[in-house]
Amino acid sequence: MYINDLILTPVINKYVNIVNWISLSSLLNFKIYKNIITIKKLVIGEMRKMGKNVLMISWEYPPRITGGLGVASKGLAVALTKLGNSVFMLLPKLTGKEEEIPGIHLIDFKKTRHLLSEDEIQELAVKTSKFKYYAEQISTYGQFGETPSSFFLKVSSAWHDLLKNISHKLILKEDFLTGNYSNRVYDEINIFATWAAMISKKLDFDIIHAHDWMTYKAGLAIAKISKKPVICHVHSTEFDRSGDKVNQYVFDIENNAFHSANMNIAVSEFTKNILIRRYSVQPDKIKTVHNGVDFTQVIEEPSYKQKSKKITGISKKRKIAPKDKIVTFVGRITFQKGPDYFVRAAKKVIEEIPNTRFVMAGTGDMYYRIIDMAAGMGMGSYFHYTGFLKNEGVIKLYNISDLYIMPSVSEPFGITPLEAMLHKVPVIISKQSGVSEIIQNAIKVDFWDINQIANSIIYVLKNPKIYKKMLEEGYTEAQKINWITPAEKVNSIYGEVLR
Amino acid sequence: MTSICFYFQVHQPYRLRPYHFFDIGENVPYEDDEKNIQIIKKVSEKCYIPATNILLELIEKYNGKFKIAFSLSGVFIEQAKQHYPLVIDNFKKLAKTGCVEFLAETYYHSLSSLVSEEEFKAQVKLHTKLIEKEFNYTPAIFRNTELIFSNHIAWLAGEMGFKGMLLEGADKILDWRNPNFVYKAKYAPNLKLLLKNYKLSDDIAFRFSEKSWKEYPLSSEKYAGWIHSVAGSGDVVNLFMDFETFGEHQWEDSGIFNFLRALPENVFKHPDFEFLKVSEAIEKYPVVGDIDTHDPVSWADIERDLSAWLGNNIQNEAFRGIYDLQQKVYDSDNKKLLEVFRRLQTSDHFYYMCTKYFNDGDVHKYFNPFESPYDAYIYYMNVLQDFRQKLDAKTKQINKSAKVSKTTKKSTLKKTKSVKPKTSTGYKKSQFTTEIMVENNIKSKGQASNILNNKVEKVKKV
Predict the structure, then answer these.
(1) A328 and A208 both lie in a single domain
(2) Do B378 and A320 touch (CB under 8 A)?
């Protein structure tokens, strides 16, 4: 008894310290939180209708998005519900500002925290690197001369409590699961996968549908437990994002998933080819389903009024650079999007049409380099940068743009040209994109062919007839693209897989 | 006898606001008034008021023996007058003591000396007028923005009738010589030069509160001792620094004010030392040598060149962008637009775009109101575009009225005619100098100096 006290005192002291350190207030919050949260029906047997219950897993969902992934997964989910399916959407973190749509059940970690058992909480907490840090701190107090086994017996109950508390604190932290792409992303996708598998036990579903590499681990984990088929939806691959310098960790996740999945869906033939060439996936294990566009997001009557006078023949003036023509780039300023080809082409355009302006919307790891590059080529006064734009900002930009360029080096799909077309902006897009497979009224160029890009820009800007034709017919064409057709394709793939 | 010349630079720019792309054409003001007012008030309280009070005390105490020189930028005077008039009152008091000399500079603290003779001369004249009006004092000595000096600029200053000019005592122009003598400019023989003793100046301006410095804490006794060691090996000790050193860069709790208060007493302990105004110093001592540099020299950073303002692509583009508009501004014949044009020339705008040591978080970052040099550039270029559009709109109006006047054949025709010839020559000039500048800074330096050389020779012949 006496000895026990001696040994345990430092342990307990440390324990108290740590509890204080993580802060007691969060403990209190937890209790309150547990009472307040009322989760919507998660176990929905009665909702089973004609359609299937789809367990979708995504990393992004509007309004919190960084690229096209969130928009596409929402668009597809909505269309699938219209075909009579219901969708559980597992996400790392919701903002609370998501649109409520009947038939779509958004589930994130925070919502389901109170459904987890003690063991599950601990299992999750152990996945974080912080846990190891705390645990190591405590375990150093275990070295007080006794044999490990006798020591462990004495402290095991205290140890257990300790772990329990740490686990609770950790999972309550805001940054436990953020859904960001920070340096913790590897940690997070593991936590996410473990959590998704736990939650899936409480859900009734027929098929698993995982979007992009962040969720493939989760998809496979659920499939393992539930024995349900899993589909990997490929919006982009590591080769699109990084060129030939792939991140091996990400590649391995993708490679494993593509081969383990019951079926893969690629957003374009372009992407399907990458899967075949780079990942050696059997062609019959890949279906191509091109993305759609959600037309309801676009302002109903896109206006000519701010376009340059000469091109559209309408005299209402634009406030920004009224005499010039505005050529726009929208997207992350990263290797994948080919911003440097945009800048190089601009140089040639300016030589031919000096009153051209180039606007780049977006940020990324090449942002400063691109700014410096354009300045170094003497085009400082011709270039403007908006930084990252929210949706309204992008629409505002489309409305003043005369031409839209997407010089992507590797673009699995590329939704922005369609948005631009819906705002009556003619588009020039790279052949290395999925979207180029489905639209006709666009000029298609090789991203590396700066002369071709420049000549196309000059050609369109100098030919009002061509310009008007591209604008009108592009608008009509883009309007016809929706999410229903892709959803029907996906639905029949479900049928095939479930057969 | 050895003389000490104190000179303090006082300047506050009109900082720009984060001017977004969509602000273009929407009549959004360029400057961040709120921030500018807040800063002028803060610096007045921390520095200008207490420091000028101490100087007034000292001048009274030593009965005319303690002398100093000031250069106040025009944009500083404007802002102080409007938002903290007490500061200007104190400077007026200083002016009345007769122990204070005011120096000439460009009104807008601009880099115009590098590219546009027209702008440069106009801004210096504006500044002189302002100093005459506010302090009843006519400057005879010139100091260029950030002590930027080159043969060409010296020649310009000489041509404008200045008797002397201040510059950095940079090693690269002095070589084996020391800065503690009076020099003259090689291509402007009547222009005498005082060179900053950067070691002693920076001991106060940069190192005073640096705890890792081996001399920390610096007492005025110790410092006076360093000055005294010049005895016998120099005529003048030139201590040039930002006035904001006192209370703003070096905070009050570092003891900077007590240091300043006690310094004259300790200097006077040596009977052979005195304080002089710069114009007195250049009269008193003989010229010992020539200063000859085609490459501009400044007092900034370790490089002592222009790289703090014109050292990378974005700075050069922004700089070219603003001076490309000069002709349009002159054509517009509009005072408001001219004022905007000149405020946009203030060197600080380009300083904020400096990418040197961007990652180290040093002095450049301390002064930068924006998150990064690239932001500073993006906003500046957006402002420039808006300004360009305003100019275009104005030019259109003028053209219209010109057309009207042609049809009516009335006296208005004269007016438009008289505008044109004046401008066409000016345009060529500015373009020429821009080219020189750009080459001088980015490309081969030897070539550029040759061009400058030729230019100086040409001008001489004329």
Answers:
(1) no
(2) no
Assess if residue A78 is contained within a domain. Answer: yes
Does residue A73 sit in the same domain as residue A199? yes
pLDDT digits (tens, 9 = 90+) for B227-239: 999 988 899 999 9
- How many other β-carbons are positioned within 10 Å of the β-carbon of residue A177? 23
The CATH number linked to A420 is 3.40.50.2000
The answer to whether A321 faces chain B, any CB pair under 8 Å, is yes
Any CB–CB contact under 8 A between A378 and chain B?
Answer: yes
* A18 is a domain residue: no
Residue A9 included in any domain: no
Calpha distance A35→A55 (Å, rounded) = 27
**Non-local CB neighbours of B440 within 8 Å, separated by 6+ positions:** B114, B295, B296, B448, B449, B452
CB contact under 8 A, B25 and A385: no
Expressed as residue numbers, the domain containing A87 is: 51-117+183-292+488-495
Of A105, A137, A171, the one marking the end of a domain is A171
Mean pLDDT of chain B: 87
Work out whether strand A104-108 and strand A86-91 pair parallel, antiparallel, or are unpaired: parallel
Chain B residues touching A379 at Cβ < 8 A: 317
Q: Worst-scoring range by mean pLDDT, A248-257, B232-241, B418-427?
A: B418-427
Is A308 within a domain? yes
Measured from the Cβ of residue A81, the count of other Cβ atoms closer than 10 Å reads 18
CB contacts, 8 Å: A385 with chain B: 21, 378
Question: What percentage of chain A carries pLDDT values higher than 90?
Answer: 54
Has residue A3 got a pLDDT over 50? no
From residue A301, give the alpha-carbon distance in Å to each of A298, A420, A441: 9, 13, 20
pLDDT of A56 reads 95
Quick: pLDDT tens for A297-308: 555 444 444 554
| A341 interfaces chain B, CB cutoff of 8 Å | no
Residue A8 has pLDDT above 80, yes or no: no
Contacts of A393 in chain B (CB under 8 A): 22
- Mutation for testing the B interface, residue in A384, A395, A398 having most B CBs under 10 Å: A384
Q: Give me the number of domains chain A comprises.
A: 3
Contact (CB, 8 A) for A219 and A210: yes
Residues A79 and A206 grouped into a single domain = yes
